[in-house]
Write a structure and sequence with these properties.
Elements: H1 2-7, H2 15-73, H3 75-85
Length: 126
C-alpha cells in the first residue's frame, strides 16, 4: 500500500481501450465487407451466366425464325399457297409488263431506252 500512496491514485485511461475498440470495429467491418463483396460478385457472376444463356437462346430462336421467314417468302411456297387458296392468279402477258429505264448515273454510259409499252386491261376470271 505504501507504493500506491507514493505514486498516488492513477486515473483509468480510456484512450488505449478506445483505440482497441476502434481497431476491432474496423477489422470486423472489413471482414464483413469482404464477405459481402465476395457474395455479391458470385451473385453477379451467376446473373451474367444466366443472361448469356438467355441471349444465346434468343439468337437461336431468331435464326430459326429467319429460316422460317425465308421459307415463307420463297417463290415455290407462295405459288403453292396461291394455288391452294384458288386466287385465280395467272402469269402476266408480256404486254402487261412495264419496263422502266434506269436513271443516268454520272460517269456511266446511259441505259438503253425501251420502246413504249401498251397496257392491257385485265379481265376478271373468276
Amino acid at each position: 500500500m505504501t507504493a500506491n500512496r507514493k505514486n498516488g491514485v492513477k486515473p483509468i485511461r480510456f484512450g488505449p481501450l478506445f483505440g482497441l475498440v476502434l481497431a476491432f470495429l474496423f477489422a470486423s467491418g472489413a471482414g464483413l465487407g469482404y464477405v459481402w463483396h465476395r457474395n455479391r460478385n458470385a451473385e453477379l457472376s451467376r446473373q451474367v451466366t444466366q443472361k448469356r444463356a438467355e441471349l444465346e437462346a434468343c439468337r437461336l430462336e431468331n435464326q430459326a425464325l429467319d429460316r422460317q421467314l425465308e421459307a415463307l417468302r420463297s417463290h415455290p411456297y407462295l405459288a403453292r399457297r396461291a394455288q391452294e387458296l384458288n386466287l385465280g392468279l395467272v402469269m402476266p402477258q408480256p404486254e402487261q409488263i412495264l419496263r422502266l429505264p434506269a436513271l443516268p448515273v454520272a460517269g456511266l454510259p446511259a441505259a438503253p431506252s425501251f420502246a413504249p409499252v401498251r397496257f392491257a386491261a385485265r379481265s376478271e376470271q373468276r
